[in-house]
Predict the structure.
Amino acid sequence: MTTSESSATTVSSAPESSDWVGRSFKRKEDHRLTTGKGQYLADIAAPGMAHLVFHRSTHAHALIKKVDTSKAAKMPGVLAVITGAELKDQILGFPQPVVVPALEAKYPTFWPLALDKVKFHGEPIAAVVAVDKYQAEDAALVIEVEYEPLPVVLDPEKALEAGAPRVHEIFDDNEMFALTFTGGQTQEEQDANDKDVEALIQEADVVVKQRFRVHRTGVTPMETRGALAQWDESDGLLAHVTTQRPHIDRLALADMLSIPPQMVQVIAPRDQGGEFGVKAPFYREPILVCHMARKLGRPVRWVETREEHLMCVSQERDQIHDIEVAAKSDGTITAVRDRAIGDAGDGCEGVYWGFLMPFLGAALLPNAYDLPKCDIKLRVAFTNKSALSPARSFGAFPARFALDRAIDLVARKLGMDPADVRRKNLITELPYTSATGVHYDSGDFLKTWDNLTKTIGLTAFRKEQAKALKEGRYIGIGFAVGAELSGVASEVLVPMENQPGYGAATVRVDPRGTVLVFEGDAPGGQGHETSLAQIAAQEFGIHPNDIVVKTGDTSITPFGSGTIGARAGSYTASAVSIACRRLKDKIAVIMAHDLKLEDATPEDFEFKNGEVIYKGGNIRKTFVEMTNRIIMMPLDLPEGVDAGLDETAFFEADKPMICFSCHGTIIEVDADTGQFEIKKYVTSEDAGTVINPLIVEGQVQGAVVQGISNTIFEEFVYDENGQQLTADFENYQIASAADVPRVMVTHAGVPCPHTPLGTRGLGEGLPGPVPAALGNAVSDALQPFGIEITDLPLRANKIWAMIQEAKKKTAA
Amino acid sequence: MNKDVKISINGVAYEKSVPLRMLLVDFIRDEAGLTGTHIGCTYEGRCGTCTVQMDGEAVKSCMLLAVQADGREIATVEGLASNGRLHPLQEAFNEHHALQCGFCTPGILMNTEEFLKENPDPSEAEIRRSLVGNICRCTGYDHIIDAIQTAAKRLRQA
């Protein structure tokens, strides 16, 4: 399969020669990145820079009796050693309002370094700053900590039991967060809804009741975290941080370090080695780096080791769903009841606090299905693990697995093809608001779905499957879908994270007819420098190479809440578009004035091939002529029009928008070994108008492989004492090129009516449907044994054991 | 304890006195200032972002000491383009969108440059096997395979 074949059914017709949106324009980022000229955080240095290394807890739960830093302080090159007890009096602690959701929960108090006890294996206790990084590591090793171990609690269900060891003494129990997502705001309304759901379950033709469990795994990026802080008494703090939300970090750093906000500049390096949500929180470590730079009056850099990274962040999923699905004999689902449990770890993490992922997962549980009657309740527990941190398909990965697996179980009970049950329950009339209150703006789900089943060849497969079974081969097909956030509207983000959802962009036109676009968010591989240049190129009718996109520097970019929730293609792209259109209107007004076209309106002008064209009389001026005239020769301007071509726009959709993705896979299982091979993986997308098909294809393929890797290979393992056993890539195994199939990406969508160019953002939620698609396919293949996959990871040894069990039963 | 070394990187000789324990990757990045070679794992050679060539052979520079490279020729991604012209692999990676964040890319390029010399016309399965020592987290690998196939074809025709 070649790239061009895989995009066979693109949504928009082939672009005209002057169209830049819809074109697989080669990325502008790639030259520097393929020649070794990229500048990631660890590549940025400052004169006199010192290195910070953490000393981290070797216990999962223990009182800190004593921290002896005397040996470390005397080591060569050491500039400073700091402990939590010292730090507590020097800076403010968490929680700080700008990084606390507006949701009722137990928010623990904590500092960047542990005070009197540690709550997970890997929690920072002290830090060393030294001239040389080897010296800093040496000194961090000789810090001596005396612990008094406490009982550990690792299982979220046990953590919620009365009498469980408490992770945070300040709270009465380990229930960090609990919420009913359905029925209404009041207890009475919710109780009434619960009763209705119970009645529907009682009277249903079939009911499936099943526990699904998804392990702890996430999308660790290839570049770890890091920070480089510089302090100047008059200028204040300059902090380079690996982050998806530099503007939020700036406010939070100012608050915690008590620095006036105008004296804090945060730069997310334009080259970041992958994000995937992992770099979205406001983490504790950069705060200490900034503080130490101020304290020592010299630049300090911390580059996280992979071991630290895997112990402390990138851990997501980790949910239990006890789900019941009731259906009529024709396959119509009448009710869903879900009791979900999330494991927040110690919950000590700015913005997300370990529970926002399961929170959103529960809210997104109904997915693209028309399920008006749901009873969904979530409890999230503190445990002695590192705080759950985001990974794309934020919280939804386990929820998608539970519901889309349960739908196959319903189909089994009804003797229907799971594809038919799925199709029967897809939402057909949009806009739609789910039982959990999530708004789906538009789309044609059946069109996207039908494209998938046709492309993968469902009908032919069923014949092949029957034939294969006669030959003793077990092949199966599995499907799953995802209605995913395409940006997060303020309507959702303000209550959820206390942050605005708008997309922001500044467009600055140069006298020479070239353009600078400023984006306050901070990409990490998504290709914003190219896609956003294509948007501005489309609007102005100039070449994308004449446009430069600047990102991530709080001193030059407009405020944005960060590169999160697939918002670039929807919110940020739209802000760019709107800013360009306002400037085009201004250019048109001035051109009409200059040419004395008294009746002309901006709509009469077209921007194409480097020209501004008055369509009424085919009068042309070059774009450069106009920009030079307006910026450099601000004489005789129309009344009320000021000089310059510089515009900032904030885009906010009235209602939250989504993108939609359907996944299908064909798998063959070796019943003798439990090994399985993914023979085919196909997706069908509604991404609205596609800005750059090649970039979108890359987003989908990458996300699907992350989903496959999470489902099959990756797992964070803690032993019974809470010791982390998977803190390196030998033990935390990520799929290699040899482990994964080709991913065929097709499109069958409709332009989004709520954005200026019909675009939707996609990327964030894309791994979500993967585990159910794989689990459904393996279960489908193994129906002769009656096997249903309910727990992840999906591993050959487990499948083999299930086959053995099934064979025993048959024999008996 | 220090030792004097002379290490050639991309044809430039670096004569330095380095601690015995200094890793080759740190020499390349910190002493020679060539930051295109990255560090992505816990120095166990698993991620492949530090891949360079030593005397023409792809090696993980985090698993070697700088002193082991004394007197040897190191090639890094910064030396892959020659006379202002990109290597066919670099061009093909751009054409096929074979990189997103780009963090793994230098290592993949240095590994693959050697691989294609040994196997100028590889099958897809052979390319996939050649990449097991280089993790890419962004792309899902398909575009990388496409790019390597395109580059291999051009190199064969060159």
Chain B has a mean pLDDT of 97. The longest helix of chain B spans residues 142-157.
